[in-house]
Design brief:
With 333 residues, this protein is an all-alpha fold. It has a domain of 226 residues. It is 72% helix and 0% strand.
Length: 333
Amino acid sequence: MTSNLFDFIDPENYGLAIANFPLPTGQGQTTRRLLNSLMIELTKAIGVIFALSFVSSSFTTFIIREKHSGAMAMQFLSGHSRLVYWSMSYVWDFISFLIPVAFIVIIFVIFDEQAYIGKGQIGAFIVLLVVYGLAITPLMYCFSFIFHSPSVAFVSFLALNILVTIITTVIVQTLELTAHDNPDVSSVADVLANLFLIFPQFAFSRGFYELAKGYAINALRLDQLTDSSHLFSWKALTEKLVAMTIEAVVFSGILLLVEYSRLRNVCGKCKNKSKIVSAAVSSGEHRLGIGADVLEERERVENVCYPYRKLNLFLNTTDGTTETDKTKNLSVF
């Protein structure tokens, strides 16, 4: 009987309507979503630094190769200023650093990473990448003095960048995650976060993290419930950008200080050595009848340290030989 009823019922007049009224998301679920999102973004920050570490580590290989092949010394001996040499290297390497930065931005645009290329985010993201390049380049230069092999230096700098990034970032992030249950841990995390800003790697990863954090808070509509601020506020990005800018200046100053202190040490050794040689030679040359004015001029030339002086040779012959004969086998070092 029930089956026969369907012959008299028009199915178009009947149907099934479903309505879904989900309960509001609890605070615990929202917090978990926020933490999961931030952990993923933190991993991206470490990945970006890992990629840029190949670029910054490669800057020193050419300098070490020049230094130990003698090309750098030849430039200085020809009158090239040390300040100009390092300034030009800095400018060239920074321009080279901008090329992978452009590729990173393009990749983030392709994958639609709104946390970094969204409206109001992309400008801060590019500034963060550029300032990181300004800070990390002179730091790599400072460590170039302790290496003799370009390949060893490249691997060492790569490992150094990755280890510093992972260790500092993981320590601070772990302390911050456990700070909700222990207020003392929160103060320790704040101190370490400020202390680790001396490393450009940590400052960049922290700024990267703040970009993602600000976007996640706005996406989850938590800006009214949390202490969120503008991207360029002091605790968000400005603190990190200022730290990396100061580091760029400080590392550049240390580089020039080391370079010119090495120059003074070499000059001092050259002068001491020339005095010993002059004392030994002059005792025998007095017996050969060489005049005092000649010995005085020789001592002045041997004490010249800077490569910008001119050495003029005047050959006065008194034994009947020609100047061509005198200068045939003459060598000056």
